[in-house]
Amino acid sequence: MEMTKDLKLSVSLDEFKTQYERLKQNEEALRVSEERYRLAVEGANDGLWDWDFVTNKFFISEKWKRELPNEILNPKLSIMGKWTRLIHPEDLNEALNSFKEYLKGNSEYLFCEYRFRTKDDYKWVLTRGKILRDKVGKPIRMAGSISDITYRKIYEEKIKDLAYYDRLTKLPNFHYSKEIIGEKIKNNNGIRKFALFLIDLDNFRNINDTLGHQFGDEVLITIKEKLKLIISDNDILCKTGEDEFLIIKDIDYGKLEAENFAKEILNYFQGPLSIHNHEIYSTISIGIEIYPDNVEDAFGLLRNVDSAMYSAKEKGRNTYEFFNTDIYKDIVKKISLESDLRKAIKNNEFELYYQPQMDLNTEEIIGVEALIRWNHPHKGLISPVQFIPLAENTGLIVNIGKWVIETVCKQNMKWQDMGYEDVVISINVSSIQLQQKDFINFVSDALKKYNMKAELLNIEITESTLMKSIDSVVIKLKSLKELGVGISLDDFGTGYSSLSYLKKLPIDTLKIDKIFIDDVNEHSIEDAITGEIIQLAHKMKIDVVAEGVEEKNQIHLLKSQNCDKIQGYVLSKPVPKEEVIKFFKSKL
């Protein structure tokens, strides 16, 4: 019996020792776990917080507690009172609404970003949290984390600046202006009108080409500063393109008020811009659209005001134009024409017609001008007057121009095989073509490919083409001259007619425009002007071609003035390649 008691006591002691060892192990494991938790909390960037609604006790990890100002220790303030005092006033409503919406059960987690005051400064923080409820759904506890996201916010602001603001002027860009307009429409509900004024600097490309892009940037900054002086505090100024500024302006009296403001802008820009001792004269074109007269969405408003601005440019620039449905119809037509023009290039729908040129001394046809025609599959022949400006505006003129050069060289080879070896072919070239880096090489390669003598190719440029970038054009023309290609200045007298730049140009021929020829007769002003132009050209060793000659008496008068060549309906209208050969070696 005594032995049984000793055995039971021994077993109890062993169990006690085992349980004690387990307890020590559990305490050690708990200590290690707590130590690990403490290290994790202290080492983490995030702060951990816990709010017991029952006891109204609030815990926040030590690292973040050190960041907080003394307000958080004020025992007189509630926990919410302490916290809300540290939230930036501009972010307070949004933060409280997020908290209230979460308490109502409208979101699965509390998730809110706001600026939070620390001992040093405001920081952007992200607060996350989740609530614990009792059996009846009453909140009893909430815990979560708070993260410093200041650097992320700074990065986001930089990204936003790049995405929404113009790099040079720091004004809202096109994308941001669309959002601004969208917000105005959303908050407006059609109650109050506002107008868009799209302002484009005329001939800005010339400024960049002649004075450099850095100077062009100075011009844009000056334009911005001038516009800021003319707009009111409630107006919004944006920069929506390379040289385009947009003003968004509330108006009370509709079209008349918008028109008066446009006139004010135009008047304000009548004088020169003074930049680094340079005086720059440049006009502006303004497109105007009023909300909600035609459309009620941001994209439509921007599209319409852009159309109105281009309409103002087409009407001579230095003016303004309101959007109307006719402008929109014209735009639709141009879009359709552009689409057809792209197909025409792909489907080879172009054709060259040729107009003879006669030497007045020998009365022989010594050359032709190649004139492009578009043989549209449904509309028939389309004049270059209709599609060349569109081709230049869209850049399609580059491919069209290359087709013309290659076709002319190929045609010359065929005429040589037929025995017509000395026919000079003139082609018109735009400033856009001349500005292409590969233009000179392309001409040279085409001449070699079709074994065409360079002196049988004549490049014609207009005064307007020349003045768009005179220095770079002159360089290209000199390169063409080195190849042996002839150069003609077309439509002389209709543009700038500056005699000073004639000295700079490596030209062989001056073409007098038709407007001087139409009314030319003895003792007329046109007769005197034409005679003076011919004499001046000859003194500079430049040949003269009179364009648009339609009557025989004009031929005799031009011959008496020693004009070298003529071109016009008196000889022939432009005709296909099959018909023009009958004029070769013939006389009038």
Walk me through the topology:
Layout: H1 2-43, E1 47-52, E2 57-60, H2 62-65, H3 79-86, H4 89-103, E3 110-117, E4 122-133, E5 139-148, H5 150-164, H6 174-188, E6 193-201, H7 204-211, H8 213-230, E7 236-241, E8 244-251, H9 255-268, E9 273-275, E10 278-280, E11 284-291, H10 298-314, E12 320-322, H11 325-347, E13 350-359, E14 364-376, E15 380-382, H12 384-394, H13 397-417, E16 424-428, H14 431-434, H15 439-449, E17 457-462, H16 463-468, H17 470-483, E18 486-492, E19 509-512, H18 514-517, H19 525-539, E20 543-546, H20 552-560, E21 565-567, E22 575-576, H21 577-580
Parallel strand pairs: 11-12, 14-16, 16-17, 17-18, 18-19, 19-20, 20-21
Antiparallel strand pairs: 1-2, 1-5, 3-4, 4-5, 6-8, 6-11, 7-8, 9-10, 13-14, 13-21, 13-22, 14-15
Helix pairs in contact: 7-8, 11-12, 13-15
Pfam families: EAL, GGDEF, PAS_3
Domain EAL: 334-588
Domain GGDEF: 192-325
